[in-house]
Design brief:
The protein has helices spanning 4-17, 20-23, 27-43, 49-86. It is mostly helical. The longest helix has 38 residues, at 49-86.
């Protein structure tokens, strides 16, 4: 769901911004920061990049099908108009 590498980067930035005394807690702080970030980001109404990419591909295929149907519909309208004019 969430990119672990991005969480690592954010946690490192937060850790780097902390005063030296707080940094001495080391790995425990990093672990807690990651947990809090993951919990808070998990509450957001977001989709993963993978889900987004899949839905983008679905949308593109749907758009292609819609365009093809619109072209066929336009052709049928022309044929219908031509048939109507002949009568």
């Amino acid at each position: 769901m969430l990119n672990p590498q991005k969480l690592e980067e954010i946690a490192k930035q937060v850790s780097d911004a902390m005063p030296e005394g707080v940094k001495s807690f080391g790995n425990e702080i990093d672990r807690k920061i990651k947990q809090v970030l993951q919990a808070q980001l998990g509450k957001l109404d977001m989709v993963s990049r993978e889900e987004f990419d899949v839905q983008t591909q679905v949308l593109l295929r749907t758009r292609e099908k819609l365009n093809a149907m619109e072209e066929k519909f336009a052709e049928l309208e022309k044929k219908l108009d031509a048939t109507s004019e002949d009568k």
